[in-house]
Amino acid sequence: MKVTTEQYRRVAAREMADEYTKSFLRLLPARLAERRKTAFTDFSDPAAARAAGAAIRAGALENLPQLLATFEKNAKAAGARVFWARDAAAANRYIVDTARENGISGVTKGKSMITEELGLNEALAENGIRAWETDLGEFITQLLACPPFHIVGPALNIPVARISEIFLEKGLISRPEHDPVQLGLAARRFLREKFRHLEMGITGVNLAVADSGTLINVENEGNIRLSKSRPRIQVAVMSLEKVVADMPDAMHLIRLLCRSCTGQQVSAYVSMDTGPRKDDEIDGPEQLHIVILDNGRTRIYEDPVTRQALRCIRCGACLNACPVYGQIGGYPYGWAYSGPMGQVLSPLLLGFARTRDLFSACTLCGKCRDVCPVGIDHPGLMLYYRNRDAVGDPDFRGTGAPRPEKAVYGAYAIIAGHPLLWRVFGAMARRAINCYARGNTIGKGPGVLKGWFALRDLPAPPSRSFRDQWKRRHPAPHAARPASGRKQP
Ligand code: SF4
Question: Domains in the chain, start-ordered, CATH in brackets?
Fold first, then answer.
């Protein structure tokens, strides 16, 4: 599924009306946010730790071309094959060709946002190759054919009864099962068989270390580790911004990532691999293919404002802090990236025409920026997008603000620029709005305002403006001059 304005509005409305989703959203983001907060107390100076994370990512982006060249050289020296993919089609083609050349008909996959971005599963399926997601949450969403709900837990919102149903339908269990542990074991038995027989594993990459050519993956289930070590062929797909200079930089980012993501000091598994299996090693792939994906990132990189979006380490902390995500959950975003992270990345990758609602549906409260471990200024970026979109910047595939919107803001600019007009307009607007008041509250409005009032009330404005009230209480000195005409001290 790809994000579109229509689907964002439709799915957001559906999710906000869904009692189960609402009760779930009252719990999950708050719990993860609390865990993150507690985990950060380990740092003697949490703000300094985040500032260091921001500096590492900004520095890596500053030197990106050199770091990528160094990474490629070292990865190749360790025996890996490196493929530069200009876009999703090129990446998918390379992976499909690699599978075909090796007679592969099925692959195991570790959880990765980047392969969702590529639409890799669909591309493989079109070529007769079956991809099995092996992260439990991704596996469940794959069986249900629904997008991930949350970057940390793609299927955390799916009720156990629904999982039991789909497992029964797909033959993983033989009777309804409502014990989550048993359901987990059923998935594990099923996926272990895939690991045993399938000869190609596809993973994402959390970080790539330039000075050693090492790939790092962070996870809690061990499925990525199995996808990397068990199959004969491994394909690691990384977006080009994932590279950092050296291991100390990578380690600091992993400390931030684990704490921001799940509130852990470190996740259950952190795998570091340099090249394919060596002669004296007992596991690991015979072939390691590293696909380095651009897919529009060079353009994002070239703009000094949007470049900071490439700092993201996909921790998900901004989702848990976002009041909009907290109302609608992950489905309306319609793609791999949700929450503020998605509102910042998807418009750059997909263009503004299809994603306008993502960066418009933001209150600019700044909570996402406050928790981001790498210092991304989401509200600043979204304001920038709104600005670029309003002027129809072709670099962002912006179409310009719709005509009615332009007319409204044009009129507003004129009115706001003339005090007399502003006062007349204010008096008329107050009177018009108050027609809908019930007591001190306005609970509904006409036309396009209906949607705004669907979920909130407005205090009825007073009949006199603030300015008028102020004037009455603080008369100008000449009006307050005593009748005697004597000047006040
Ligand atoms: S934008 Fe920041 S907080 Fe959000 S996922 Fe990326 S790194 Fe984490």
Answer: 1-41+304-401 (1.10.1060), 45-295 (3.40.50.10420), 403-480 (no CATH)
